[in-house]
Design brief:
355 residues; alpha/beta; Rossmann fold; six-stranded parallel beta sheet; 14 helices; 39% helix; globular
Amino acid sequence: MKILVIALSGIGDALIFTPALKLLRQHYPQAEMDALVMYKGAKDIYERNSNLNNIIYFNFLKEGAFKSLKFILSLRKKYDITINVYPSNRKEYNIISFLIGAKTKAAVRYLRMDKQNLGWLNNCRITEDDSLHNVQTNTKLIEKIAGKKFADKPDLEFQLNENDLSTASDFLLKSNIISDDIIVGFHPGTSVLKNHIKRRWEPEKFAELSKRLISEYNCKIIIFGGPDEIELKEKIRIEIDSQNVYTTQGLNLGQSAGVMKHCDVFISNDSSLMHVASALKLKVVGIIGPTSTNYIHPWNTEYKIASLHLDCSPCFIYSPKPLTCKREDVKFKCIKELTVDMVYNSVKEFITDSR
């Protein structure tokens, strides 16, 4: 039995599939299970996962149509089962699965834009349920493949290695952060594809929140983010103007996770690092605007959600369409009018409970 997990939609989505991956391995202990990814962060996550045999990395966005088609055809008829992880509601992903040509092509039947995105090319399907977390939907998909129910609800899986841990120790030592400090992690970024930058809480609010936490609790603030978020992190650090603020520079995803492991609280937009924090069992405050909290709330860890819960929310659906706002009063009000007080009060509860 050869199984290919097609995880092309993003880093967080790849991580959210890891509980289902564990159940899949339990059901098929002797199978060769590979994963196809196109983001290096997803590759990093899956290389650490003992349930997979091989990680196939191919940057479809960079390589172009001809090289991508040639690569896909090189995988043709090599797998018995292909699985499009949830969410991945794009016609390109369904075409890739179809061209690979496995006998069983598993994917979710989306409530919106399924037909337009060629979801019917798959032959093993469950119907999307807006009341479920993405972990639960992926689990239901694995149950469909296996023909059985699973009682387990596994955690997200992100294993830290010795390099991650030693790099984290060096970072804390150089930053003069000690175990007695109250350490609060921030992730002010998100993906920028499909206008998802509009899901970001304003950097000025992260800065104001930091000032309050430093003033009230003498917190040490660590600002996390990828290589494309250096300017954002520096903007917040400069605005805070405190020796209690640090930014991660030059760390890969695993090394960043090693530092995150030391945080007492982690505050994040709807992003992959929010899910890494969940995998690390941190106390998480998720700042959520247009996305359904049912889909993406931190999984199997202590968490609080800062959200306005507007009547028009959630408005973000899983499709190739860019994120838009139809409000006529304040565009993206769900994020723009989310106050510092709301997030501060959630963080304060976590800090008070742990001290």
